[in-house]
Design a protein that fits this description.
0% strand, 71% helix, mainly alpha
């Protein structure tokens, strides 16, 4: 971990807490460590998903208009979306 830790209180359904306790016992580690690892894994996976999406967009290599034309198209679409 980087820097000092911060405390976080989380409420879990009893069934989830039981699974957490079971996993921690199985691995021989504190429940807090299992939670920390799960959160870190979730955040890393979310970041990887965003990076892959951005990379896919960059691979498209679609032609785009100059900024002035794109700005007009964006504004026109915004106005059209407001119409009933």
């Amino acid at each position: 971990m980087d820097g000092p830790s911060e405390r976080l209180e989380v409420s879990l359904p009893s069934s989830t807490r039981a699974l957490l306790r079971q996993e921690a016992r199985r691995r021989g580690v504190p429940e807090a460590q299992v939670v920390q690892e799960a959160v870190e894994r979730l955040l890393a996976e979310a970041r990887q998903t965003r990076v892959r999406a951005a990379e896919a967009l960059f691979r498209v290599e679609a032609r785009v208009a100059d900024w002035a034309q794109m700005e007009q198209e964006i504004e026109a679409a915004r106005i059209a979306a407001k119409r009933p």
